[in-house]
Design brief:
Elements (H helix, E strand, L loop, with lengths): L8 H4 L4 H20 L15 E6 L8 E6 L7 E10 L2 H7 L16 E9 L11 E5 L8 E5 L3 E3 L6 H5 L2 H14 L7 E4 L5 H13 L3 E6 L2 H10 L3 E4 L5 H8 L5 E6 L3 H9 L1 E9 L12 H6 L3 E4 L2 H7 L1 H16 L7 E6 L3 H9 L6 E5 L2
Parallel strand pairs: 8-9, 8-11, 9-10, 11-12, 12-13, 14-15
Antiparallel strand pairs: 1-2, 3-4, 3-6, 3-15, 4-5, 5-7
Helix pairs in contact: 5-6, 5-12, 11-12
This protein binds NADP nicotinamide-adenine-dinucleotide phosphate.
NADP nicotinamide-adenine-dinucleotide phosphate binds next to helix 3, helix 5, helix 6, helix 11 and helix 13.
């Protein structure tokens, strides 16, 4: 199957059934015309013929990804072709390639949910970006490739002074952190925020935003002293290494029995339970993920006793449910980065051919901050 055969959620956004049929017809026309050696289409769609690009493909779940040449797709009027420079590795990409993510892709598929790159070509109706602009974008798949075709509304300009690597590290992790801390937990200046897996991509972003944007006091909890130190450098004022201490007891000591106002929790299992116990009166715990693999149950009496709230955050879902909020998290992240309030930490760079090594590096808990695949 060509990578161009199925559109991503972002690209399908706003498209009615008639438009989708047109698109399918266009793809078929393109393939027929390519075989005939023709390069133009009569129905208004632009065709970039004989062009190919490399992409990482998941052909079989749980098996290593392979790098394949794919044919470029023609652009629809609202679409933008981006030459991808960097693609962020997300836990969700790895889960998707194992068939364990909540959103399932039909095989074969190219993972990759966030990218930075340069605009190569724009559709006829696009005015928000132009050839040569540096952009970041978000999708639910397909960004782990040299080229990505995006709906123009899913692209944001990279400000001056922000590198491709930094920019690619922003959307998912900082978007989620901003949403969790601001929109969901309503974190106030001076409140105490406990962040678990505090040196992970989401965790370190949460430390950065809570400490440096929201002026909260951050307790970073992580699985090694090296990771704790990184979170302290990022702005946390205290840390707990939960690989050899009991998180609940340590937080109790650090807060002199008071507890924390907000928890940003990405691990699940027993760490979630200890973090829930660490909340103070009217505290809020935000369920972000289950990196440890165990989805915890919440005893309702714990919520009642201290008037605490447990809430979820699913950043990607805002894209469909409330696009202005979704878009605002990305714009804010770019703005905070340009103004120097936050600084994404790129822990490691891998090449496209090293994508399987990059995935292992993350699952083996070796990574800190964002792991980036550099493509050009
Ligand atoms: N809800 C949302 O919208 C949203 C958005 C982004 C991410 N997420 C989720 O948040 C979680 C973290 O994502 P991320 O991108 O920040 O991942 P990451 O950078 O890989 O960080 C995950 C961290 O979790 C800790 N961890 C504990 N047990 C683990 C285990 N068994 N395997 C792997 N890691 C383990 C590790 O830190 P220590 O070694 O310090 O324990 C690891 O560094 C994932 O579940 C992801 O799906 C959710």
């Amino acid at each position: 199957m060509a990578a161009t055969g199925a559109k991503s959620l972002g690209q399908l956004w706003c498209m009615g059934p008639r438009r989708l049929l047109q698109l399918q017809q266009c793809r078929m026309n393109a393939s027929i015309r390519k075989q005939l050696g023709l390069s133009t289409l009569s129905n208004g769609f632009r065709l970039q013929s004989h062009r190919s690009y490399r992409a990482a493909l998941c052909i079989e779940l749980t098996k290593p990804l392979v790098i394949r040449n794919m044919l470029s797709s023609p652009l629809l009027p609202h679409e933008v072709r981006v030459g991808v420079h960097c693609c962020g590795v997300n836990f969700a990409d790895i889960l998707a390639c194992q068939g364990l993510y909540q959103e399932k892709h039909s095989l074969p598929f190219t993972p990759g949910m966030e990218f930075s790159g340069i605009v190569l070509e724009t559709g006829d109706n696009v005015s928000s970006v132009q050839e040569g602009n540096r952009v970041i974008g978000v999708t639910n798949s397909k960004a782990l490739a040299e080229e990505y075709v995006s709906h123009h509304k899913m692209l944001w300009r990279i400000p001056e002074g922000v590198s491709y690597e930094e920019a690619a590290a922003l959307p998912v992790s900082y978007g989620t952190a901003i949403l969790a801390l601001q929109q969901r937990a309503r974190t106030q200046p001076g409140e105490t925020v406990l962040v678990t897996a505090a040196a992970g991509a989401t965790g370190l972003a949460a430390v950065d935003v809570a400490a440096n944007v929201l002026q909260a006091k951050v307790i970073a909890a992580a699985g090694s002293d090296r990771k704790c130190n990184l979170a302290l450098q990022k702005g946390a004022t205290q840390s707990v290494n939960y690989s050899w201490t009991i998180l609940k007891e340590e937080v109790k000591k650090l807060t002199v029995n008071r507890g924390v106002n907000v928890v940003i929790e990405t691990i699940g299992g027993d760490i979630f339970k200890e973090a829930l116990h660490s909340l103070t009166w009217e505290g809020r715990i935000v369920v972000v993920g289950f990196a440890g693999g165990t989805i915890p149950l919440i005893p309702a009496n714990l919520l009642l006793l201290k008037n605490v709230s447990a809430m979820g955050v699913y950043w990607g879902r805002y894209w469909e449910q409330d696009f202005p909020i979704f878009a605002a998290t990305i714009s804010s992240a770019l703005q905070y980065c340009q103004e120097g309030w936050i600084q994404p930490h790129v822990g490691e760079l891998f090449k496209l051919e090293e994508v399987n090594e990059a995935f292992s590096y993350v699952t083996q808990r070796k990574s800190t901050g964002k792991v980036i695949i550099t493509i050009q």
